[in-house]
Fold this protein.
Amino acid sequence: MEKTRARLWELQAKRAQGSWARAQNRGREGREEAGAVARRSRARRAEGFARSHGRTRGSTRMEMSAHRGRSRGRERSSWAHRENAPWLRELGTQERRAEEALRARIRRRGRKKEERLSGGEETRLGRDSSWHRRTPWEQWS
């Protein structure tokens, strides 16, 4: 028993020494365990990559645990962090406005001059809604 414990202690010491040396090589204090250092820097690197490639997924350990299943953590909603992306909402409204303007322009395009001036909404027949209120003589003018 004693022998096994000694051996175990020896192995642990060796392992600790190895990680300490690695930490020294990385130019950090030996207090930190090298594994943790590597993990953190890897996370940081991944995060940088994601940011520069237009993906705003964090890659720290906490955030990664949120990615594992969609049901967990920050990534619960289908579109990326709603509160943190107010520009997303504006984008939607801008698009909608542009579309509406375009539709209006298309609607205006195919009208006769007097129809355009009257400003009534056209019906299936391509006439104003005011067309029905005119006397037969005005209708065909």
Q: What stands out?
A: Helices lie at 2-25, 34-52, 61-68, 86-109, 113-118, 136-139. The radius of gyration is 34 Å. The chain is about 60% helix and 0% strand.
